[in-house]
Amino acid sequence: MRLKEGEEAVRRVLGEIHRRGKVGTKDLARATRLPTPVAAAIRRELEKAGLVARKGGAILTETGKEFVEGVLGMVADHRKTEGSIGVPPVHEPILEKLRDYSSRRPSANPKLDQAHATPETALRRALYMLDGGNLAGRNALFLGDDDLTSVAAGLLRVAKGITVVDIDGRLLEAITGISEKEGLGIECVLHDLREPLPEELRGAFDTFLTDPPYTIPGLELFLSRGIQALRWRKTSTAYLAYPDKPPLEMLEVHGAINWMGLFVDELIPRFNMYIGAEILGNTTSMFRLVVTGEARPIITGPFRGGIYTGELRPTTRVYKCRCGEAIEVGSTKRFTTVEELKSRGCPSCGKKEGFRLAERRRAD
Amino acid sequence: MRLKEGEEAVRRVLGEIHRRGKVGTKDLARATRLPTPVAAAIRRELEKAGLVARKGGAILTETGKEFVEGVLGMVADHRKTEGSIGVPPVHEPILEKLRDYSSRRPSANPKLDQAHATPETALRRALYMLDGGNLAGRNALFLGDDDLTSVAAGLLRVAKGITVVDIDGRLLEAITGISEKEGLGIECVLHDLREPLPEELRGAFDTFLTDPPYTIPGLELFLSRGIQALRWRKTSTAYLAYPDKPPLEMLEVHGAINWMGLFVDELIPRFNMYIGAEILGNTTSMFRLVVTGEARPIITGPFRGGIYTGELRPTTRVYKCRCGEAIEVGSTKRFTTVEELKSRGCPSCGKKEGFRLAERRRAD
Fold first, then answer.
1. Which of A60, A330, B87, B320 sits 20 to 30 Å CA-CA off B46?
2. Domains of chain A, residue spans
3. pLDDT value of position A309
4. Do residue B266 and residue A265 have CB atoms under 8 angstroms apart?
5. Which overall architecture, per CATH, does domain B91-291 show?
6. Are A207 and A129 in contact (CB under 8 A)?
7. pTM of the model
8. Which of A130-139, A156-165, A255-264, B6-15 shows the lowest per-residue confidence on average (mean pLDDT)?
9. B70 to chain A, minimum CA–CA distance in Å?
């Protein structure tokens, strides 16, 4: 192990495999907050040492189990956080409909950072809003909705009004079709949120939910438009889906939320699950945000910068340190920027200078 | 209703009673984020209107139920967030011991903002740490521990080391006694955290948990000491218990956490329950914090300011507006300071000036 944090990293990897029983490399990387290549390297080393085996994912061998429990003193997990907010059986008919509508919606457009949430996720979101007193009798706004959360909310038939704003005409057509067939009265507004919020949507809603592009400008833009859409900013509630990113990026995410005058009231990891796309282990956290009296949209005019993942971080860069170490820099890597790499130093030799750009490649 | 936000406030009060079935005024105020007198006034108005009755707490009458469900379109709650992390039956013997030890610990010293968590809470905290991979085989630090969380953690018998730092000698004596009897090896350090962290505790721990004084300086001080105690600051985990305060104060709490380079990874409302003291509805939230590479203790030297509730906000003040409205100002009130009252205006007439101090009283 050439890592400075070798022992800690190995412990995390072993702990996570122990906790889950079986885990793939991407999930392992995400859960341990290690870069994927590092997690993969550790897994390989542990395989060589006979502690870990592969069987559709990393598992502990008998020796591995003894080591983890006997030497490291870990005990098996007793609790599942995932899906703790389940779908009660009474809502099974709604889930059936959602499954059907979901399977027929237009395919996800990755250029718009679309990635479809599962029908269960859409319904659990709607129930979570309901549970917080923010759906029944309320005017709810969905800022971008390829997840069909608006349809799930509509099918609960308790909201006063449901509005969807989206840039994707195909999607709005699908939602309008469902809404008409089911009599949900969902209002669809075709609008690019990079443009100012339409006048008629301002100050018109009790709450909003968004699963925005997973970039800081995307987050700031969607939250800004959402804040402007609220009727009452003192203690309204907003819902945000956002993935686990590297620590320093999460620090920035929370900083932006704070700066805009919102605070996290509840945060549920792995709440949202997605179909297909292998984005960040296919789950995101659910943030329930309180919109305080100090809330302010930090973007009010048109926004001309990039907001989508592809626009902002098109490549992973590989830097070579003088010591020979190759270090990946990019949004899903341990170092988001070369500045960060320089300030924290080479993970192998610790030097803070002398990095050479060796390779650029499209982000996977 | 003379409130500007009358409709919204009434809706929240009705929604909360509907959701809970029966609820006391303090809980009602906390859950609706309304000042207690306002929540009480609304409850009285609703009683007069025949929508609410009192029966060991506010309940909905039949008319009230019809109104809430028929007119406001609310539906009953389907989920309990409280206690979702329960104590598995296998740990019942530990809980029994904790109940016994808890009943014999020294009484809470309110001058030190002590308020004893329930034995169940202490054990659920320890299990939560365990679940996150932060107890088994780890060196854990408890910054202040009149809750006996260290004992709960010790009784799980998985940690590498457990250390308690507290200003209260009586408490440390009790913990030492329990530790010796049970063979837990808990290390107790008598120390006032307003003084710099003892050299031997710096960089020595994998994680820490604190239920600090519920003031911004108290929070900043305890987190600063905790950060200094950590061995590895890149993605370590810290646990913080903190109550629901008024929105602008919560914004400040989250701002301080962000400023110190930590971010919220999971936030569970109403996780911690307390015996006796009627503090903020007797529950606090549990924050699981990630300590990033940017983490820094913002207080490193001795701290000479106030940190306890009594030191910082000894009184509630009542201001009279020219319109006749009496407005309470204080840490647990809607307006934390008179500056806030002036900037937001009288809740009755909206004027932003002409307030006269009518009364000062010790905070309850």
1. B320
2. 6-71, 91-291, 314-362
3. 79
4. no
5. 3-Layer(aba) Sandwich (3.40)
6. yes
7. 0.73
8. B6-15
9. 10
